[in-house]
Description:
The structure is a homodimer of 342-residue chains.
Chain A: H1 5-25, H2 30-39, H3 58-69, H4 78-99, E1 103-104, E2 107-108, H5 110-114, H6 116-135, H7 142-167, H8 174-199, H9 204-231, H10 234-237, H11 243-246, H12 252-260, H13 262-273, H14 283-295, H15 298-318, H16 324-337
Antiparallel strand pairs in A: 1-2
Amino acid sequence: MTAVLAPTALDRCRTSVLPAMADAVARLDPATRAAAEYHLGWTEADGSPRSGGAGKGVRPTLALLSAEAAGADSRVGVPGAVAVELVHNFSLLHDDVMDRDSERRHRTTVWALWGESAAILTGDALLALAAEVLLEAPSSHAAAATRELMTATRELVRGQVEDLSFETRTTVALEECLRMADGKTGALLAASSCIGAILAGAPEPVVAALRDSGRHLGAAFQLVDDLLGIWGSPAVTGKPVLSDLRARKKSLPVTYVLCRGGAEGEELAAWCAADRPAQGDSEDVLRDMAALIERAGGRHWASAEAEEQLRLADAALDRVCLPDGARAELADLARYLTRRES
Amino acid sequence: MTAVLAPTALDRCRTSVLPAMADAVARLDPATRAAAEYHLGWTEADGSPRSGGAGKGVRPTLALLSAEAAGADSRVGVPGAVAVELVHNFSLLHDDVMDRDSERRHRTTVWALWGESAAILTGDALLALAAEVLLEAPSSHAAAATRELMTATRELVRGQVEDLSFETRTTVALEECLRMADGKTGALLAASSCIGAILAGAPEPVVAALRDSGRHLGAAFQLVDDLLGIWGSPAVTGKPVLSDLRARKKSLPVTYVLCRGGAEGEELAAWCAADRPAQGDSEDVLRDMAALIERAGGRHWASAEAEEQLRLADAALDRVCLPDGARAELADLARYLTRRES
């Protein structure tokens, strides 16, 4: 299956959602607006305009496609698309503060430029704005859509709480790690995948099928992201080579090997528990660990599990009858998002 | 006028809102729930129960009274009461991180106990939870109430953004300072004062009168708070004597004197701009500055302005016809809140 429709869907989405995003962000007070526009990639740090923009717009595209999947015009999904993108960026702003990441997509992060308070407050404003914009949608289902999104936001927070707690724990069960990823990535993709349909007044089985599909897509997406964090090339990921291992992150392939035990699991556990050298781990050591994880089946397991989650995402859509065009675009987008070259 | 009804109203509110608050907070993931319950004063840091609880519950009480002002049972206002209290606490959690305050109401703050990330994430979860709870209210006006609250939240963020920006500026106009206070204090009191009426489906003029009244009450409340920050006794404020001057905070009485200029204004400006001694300003110096502000009319102006704002709060209520009981309780609560002994 090739992903020919996905780039078109993403482009189409950018064109129709960007003006609504710009209108929403324009409501913010000047200082918060400036930080938000910079974070979104619309401006440089000095406020001058910048072309390019941030991210692929996966979540807003899912929101528009979900309106079409419910038989409505994609415009019905626009307030949902804006809201999910605002929530996504709220979480990125706060995560960067907590993770002390000074770069995101090769650009200095908001907290690194203007201080923690600016990043915390800009995130706060984007979350409130998301609910506001969505509640103004010309749909009698705006309240239900907002509730869906706010519940997903709490799940997202729960995922981040768990992720941070893993850093200080020596053992994490694979089940816990999957549940964390389900919160951090799955919840918002699930909400994005059904929010347009909710706004369109779709029947509950259609909403549930889209939501479930998005949740499985989130799991697949996270598995692929974790694979790229170890074996991805910097050109594709925009991060240093072997970045997740460098940070000794308990990602899914790592957790799989740790939980599986055996000689490789024990060697990996010992390395994770050991003090990090002052100058960081050498690239040779990191390559050895990547090879160890691969030998122990971590890479194969994560790839197979990503495929399985993609299959489940597709199967969820088969539970209901969707318009052919939207159905094909959703399936294609899922493939596209999880087929990033390593 | 004596404030005989207010303590009863606050007590009555605590009794009817606390169980709903507890139900809402119980939805959070275990770690976030523990931090929220500690912050709310329900538990000690080790999780053991604690009697007392946090704060007077001004905002939830206003929310319940506003339902009664619309002729409804106060129970109609409960989801609004829970939501405004959650938003208030979201903002306290984040403010403590930004202001690096390690104590609030004589207790160690959440970030000081469990780190910044815990405080940021707990705040985030409370904001999302507030919208969620309110959208579940059994009222066809739940969406309108949530929109009101989210707009107020953005105003609150705007106020905090401005407040932080004042710290690094040498001059702040009185107008700017009043606008900042309107965001930081007025917006949420305004929303609290009308949210129960919105849930009850009150006509727009009633909602507007209650909202305006709350906004003026917020201004009065902030002026009194600023007066107490300079001339209040620690027993009443729970803060060190002369605390706002100690922090060289550009509070309203200070800004009034700075903007008024003259010999006193210049002396105060010079002190504000001077480097702080390593061990902090001596109490003698702080007392001299408090006397200077008083001589220059800052204390008198703030007291008179607080009275004027209270009068406007009351006049707003006179624009519409409200049930006698609720009308009296609202007026009484306003007096009570701004009559804290200095």
